[in-house]
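Hi R.,

Here's the chain you asked about this morning:
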Amino acid sequence: MLIRDIVEALGAKLDGDGDIVVDRLVHPARAERPSDLALAISPQAAAALARTKARAVVVAAAAPWPARSFSAVLAVAEPRMALARLTALFDAGPPHERGIDPTAIVAADVALGPDVSIGAYATVGPRSRIGAATTIMPQVTIGADVTIGAHGLFHSGVRIGHNCRIGDRVIIHGNAVIGADGFSFAPDLMSAAAFTAAVAVRRVHSLGNVAIGDDVEIGACTTIDRATLESTRIGRGTKIDDHVHIGHNVTIGESCILCGMVGISGSVVMGDRVRLGGGVGVADHVRIGEQAVVAAGSGVGSDVAPGAFVSGYPALPHARSVEQHLYLGRQKRLHDKVAAMASRLDELERIVSRTVKK
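And here is the predicted structure, written out as tokens:
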């Protein structure tokens, strides 16, 4: 790849030779050959430029210029966006054989778009459809009547249940399960009556599916349950981290961010551009308004207004949550003061009592 092509893709400012060929993006300290492009957009990485073997480097335009000379210096105005574009340019995806592996089991009536790849020991159920240039890595299981869009990537161990709908350019990482049955039983397991010996717990069957929009990414070991009758929905552009659980009948809006270990109970409705920090728990039937932010480790037990920033357990408006934590930190001192006052009052009462008796 030529430096000039990278400059054009990044909208960067170039100082030096645009005809240098680079084939790898690395930290400056890990550069081993002249064809490495050293990425030095953080202060720590920039400090390593003094010893790098790379001829070409990428730096933040707002940072001090490198002390030593290089054959090509690419200065970027928005380092984080540059990182996204650069890693996309150099990411060839997981190595795989093109086409259909002879060990894959693909039903005779499956419709495959052009350039679909299906890896070893993968299975695709009857009447399913897979769009153009989608890659199914080894040991993926896709059920019957599933629709998958174009240019997707399904890593090894992914399980897609029957009748699910998945959009274009969706990435699902290893061992995620999409379309398992919902955790739903009768009677209500949270009621006291459900825990008597006379009550038989009956399964509520999941007849719906999961519908995932375009440009969604789902992390490893994440689970998304199918709906009872309709669809559990994940909106376009939403990014879901590893080890997230999304219960049945949930609707998640567009461009949401769900960090690792989030747990969402059934029938939650979440607006667009919501952000949930790591370890957040959301109770069933809660509504979270668009552009709301929930801090890591919070427990959401009631509705969250659009644009709100909540934290704590239970989740409260962040300023109030901080106030409560500060108050808890002062409790011992307050208790000590109250105890001292009580001791003084007891002593005064004893003095008064002795005085009265005299």
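One quick note: The longest strand covers residues 36-40.

Cheers,
M.
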